Fold this sequence. Notes:
Number of domains: 2
Largest sheet: 3 strands, antiparallel
Distance between the termini: 77 Å
Shape: elongated
Number of helices: 6
Strand order of the largest sheet: 1-2-3
Amino acid sequence: MRPLPRTTHSLAERHEALWLRLTTLHKDISTLAAKKPYAAVGDSERAVAEALIAEARPFLIESKNRLPVAAPLLAGLGVQLGQVLAQMENFENRHAFWDAAQGVRCWRLTDDSLPIGRLRQVGKGMQAEAQGDSNMRETFMRLMKNRERFLYQEGFRKGQAARLGPPDPAHLERDGLDAQDEQAQTYPPPGQAG
């Protein structure tokens, strides 16, 4: 039996980064091609497509020595990028496996295994444990009610202060208080629930 193919850590990371860039370009070109399939490909799109196809050479089945040339029409370029993505998917399928211990799909590296990052998998050992209260809904509801109560008290205090007007300076001088002390004595601090 033939040994399963393996890849290197750097090639796996390169594959994942290139996959993201190619899928983004393919999505944009496909969107444009759906509206105008026979429109010519712009120079910037053509240059980016050719550069990405050239960068994808190690992952392609047929890596010929000549430089890749992008299709001249949007529909053709969409098909061409789709074929490159299919061959990159083939490379991933040949060099990846399901790791039952971690519960994720991993790259089969020459020395170890590495979870495929672009899939954003959450394996058995990767799940975040809840911190603090186990019932987050009750905690969140309590925080919302406290905030609502605080805003109501602030509004009530501001409305009462507007209705009463500024404090009488003669009253403050008689008691030896300033306006801040008067406010602190009349109302509870904003952080306390009433």
